[in-house]
């Protein structure tokens, strides 16, 4: 996780001072991991622990400076890899992407699998007055591009509660909403990217750097799935998450769970209707719509 602060890797001695880029190793460890809850004399204690059982020739010197691996000029994080992939698949090669992530993702995604038992309940909403038969996904010739599906490939979008599924329709005041309650008929397994992953301790893993990078990538995928998208740019901006969803389907999972950007619950994308049944319908009218916002004042020069 850490390496000696080096000219050419972390700074250039002609124009920079190493103390501006490096720090004591014990300071970095305490800052990153909060090994000790109280800061009093932690530096001396950590220094002694780090030197324990070291021979004279490889012992640490308390005047040496260290930097995080991520601060190296040559370091490429998994977030950089994802961003390069997303940019490439949107703007360069749609079907034969140069920065293919499938192998990396195939090893990570099973760690986020989640099973649902029969009779689990989900909700789907549509603006308008519909019968139960009309509450499924659209036919392929009317399926528009979505966060999880390419145009022409319909999936079932549902939510964990009624409020979230209503919010996902982006209704207006007075809009009539039809809500279907959907039950699961048989067990399914999905990939759950609705919540962040956190590392509880740095001392419980064999390959700490690799595990941290894996967590960073999974959390990036969670952010990508839940971030608001400008509807006028969605056809392009949804392409990376559509790739992710198609990969999950190709791995044999039944769907994907992710955090809603419009409601307090979670959204689901399911690939097949065969394991679900529509039970009841509710009708409602939207009586109000709220907005949270932040105002940024822009100074203007007086003529």
Order of helices and strands: EHHEHHEEEHEEHHHEEE
Radius of gyration: 25 Å
Judging by the overall fold, what is the CATH architecture of the largest domain?
Alpha-Beta Complex
Biggest pleated sheet: 5 strands, mixed
Structure annotation, total helices: 8
What does the overall shape look like? elongated
Gap from first CA to last CA: 56 Å
Strand content: 15-25%
In CATH's first tier, which class of the largest domain applies?
Alpha Beta
Q: Estimate the mean pLDDT confidence.
A: 90
Protein topology:
Blueprint: E1 2-4, H1 25-33, H2 42-51, E2 66-68, H3 78-91, H4 102-108, E3 113-116, E4 121-127, E5 156-159, H5 162-167, E6 176-184, E7 188-193, H6 208-226, H7 234-237, H8 239-250, E8 255-259, E9 266-270, E10 276-285
Parallel strand pairs: 7-8
Antiparallel strand pairs: 1-2, 3-7, 4-6, 5-9, 6-10, 8-9
Can you describe what's shown?
There is one protein chain. With 303 residues, the chain is α+β, with helices and mostly antiparallel strands. The protein has 2 domains: 2-71, no CATH class; 111-285, Diphtheria Toxin, domain 1 (Alpha-Beta Complex). Helix content is 27%, strand content 18%. The chain has 8 helices and 10 strands. The chain has helices at 25-33, 42-51, 78-91, 102-108, 162-167, 208-226, 234-237, 239-250, and strands spanning 2-4, 66-68, 113-116, 121-127, 156-159, 176-184, 188-193, 255-259, 266-270, 276-285. The chain has a 5-stranded mixed sheet. A hairpin with a 6-residue loop joins strand 8 and strand 9. The longest helix is centred in the last third of the chain and has 19 residues, at 208-226. It is elongated, with a radius of gyration of 25 Å. 24% of the residues are buried. The model has no long low-confidence stretch (mean pLDDT 90). This is RES family NAD+ phosphorylase. Residues 131-282 form the RES domain. Pfam families: RES.
